Amino acid sequence: MKKVVFTVADYGKDNDAGPKAKRDVDYYLSQSGFEVIHQQLNNKSKLDKIKTAYWVIPRLFNNVEKFDELFFQYPTYSSYVMKRLINKMRSKSKKLFFIIHDVESLRLFQNDQNYWDGERALFNATDGLIVHNHKMKRWLQENGVTVPMVELGIFDYNNPQKINQNSEYDRTICFAGNLAKSKFLDKISLQAGKLEIFGSYPSEHYLKGVSYHGQMSPDELPKKLTQNFGLVWDGYQLDTCSGKFGNYMRYNNPHKVSLYLSSGQPVIIWKEAALADFILRNNLGIAVNSLENLDDILENITENQYSEMKMNTIEIAKKLRKGDFIKSAVKKIENITE
Q1: How many whole angstroms separate alpha carbon 241 and alpha carbon 232?
Q2: Where is the Glucosyltransferase 3-like C-terminal domain (predicted)?
Q3: H or E stretch including 199?
Q4: Among 165, 117, 168, which Cα is nearest to 144's?
Q5: Residue 11 pLDDT more than 60?
Q6: Which of 36, 147, 177, 245 has the maximum number of C-beta atoms within 10 A of its C-beta?
Q7: Regarding beta strands 229-232 and 267-270, do their DSSP bridges make them parallel or antiparallel, or are they unpaired?
């Protein structure tokens, strides 16, 4: 049986974690006997989109035998390329599945019915989808997606650094990400706790207890994640996750959660985030409504409570580093579509 995972990856900076989730899926599925087809796309170049759609994609598929299964890592972040691509993939595969990384109708195109009509049509042209979690699955079902769906649970993370085993509790937190869209960090002030920040576009000034520690690659960053917790938050406010990306947390699995957990860090996550259910069910951290009383939250966690979270996190880190979740989801979608 010929099984393929096909990835169209956008060009990115070396320290940009954006493509890592797709690279990790390639890596883990290659361990399960999948052939990897990988195509780069300069999403900012109109000429490159045209070239990819009308020359590169046909050249990729015209001279190959039909695949038994093709798992495509969705999206390409170019509707133009995607429309051309779906027909080629459909014609060249007995079964076509999407591994969903982003539902753009929930992310950048919220409440855009025309965009959703197109995206829904793409989803329904497949034989099945691997989606992030039950909340994403429910939204898709309620809005007209009719193909079978399997929940990933959480993204795996190929982490080359050693798992941090230190369980000493000293009320420290880290935050890693695009700091330009994380303006809530400007409002955090800590007396008892400490927050260490990593990423691009830092603010010029942070308040007491908050410090900036630079930007580094997704593979190097875990060396620095020695704090008690990784913080998962988005937007401009402390009392809720706001804006498009904050609302998106109600449905998606933020990849930074996998970064933290695979490094041995329990997490502090917004209570209304879809992934909060997974964190609480497995005792991998805490879920909170607000960061306004972050000092109190940290002080109310006992050393024994933290030790339990830490042990559970170390165990889940081992699974994330082996690709257990994507491998399991692939088997499930194959079984229900036989």
Answers
A1: 10
A2: 173-332
A3: strand 194-200
A4: 117
A5: no
A6: 177
A7: parallel
Residue 14: pLDDT over 50: no
Domain 172-321: which CATH number of 3.40.190.10, 3.40.50.300, 3.40.50.2300, 3.40.50.2000: 3.40.50.2000
Report d(CA 256, CA 265) in Å as an integer: 11
List the domain boundaries for the chain. Answer: 3-156+323-336, 172-321
- Considering only residues 11 and 125, tell me which one the structure prediction assigns the higher pLDDT: 125
Hey, what amino acid is at 269? I
Amino acid at 170: D
Backbone angles phi, psi at 45, to 5 degrees: -105, 115
Cβ 188 vs Cβ 291: under 8 Å = yes
Residue 162 DSSP symbol = P
**Per residue in 280-330, pLDDT tens?**
999 999 999 999 999 999 999 999 999 999 999 999 999 999 999 999 999
Give pLDDT tens digits for 40-85: 766 566 777 777 777 777 777 776 788 899 999 999 877 777 888 8
Tell me whether the CATH fold assigned to 3-156+323-336 matches the one assigned to 172-321: yes
Q: Are 158 and 321 in contact (CB under 8 A)?
A: yes
Which long-range contacts (C-beta less than 8 Å, at least 24 apart) are formed by 181-190? 181/234, 181/235, 181/243, 181/245, 182/233, 182/234, 182/235, 183/235, 183/236, 184/233, 184/234, 184/235, 184/236, 184/237, 184/238, 184/291, 185/210, 187/237, 187/238, 188/238, 188/291, 188/294, 190/294, 190/295
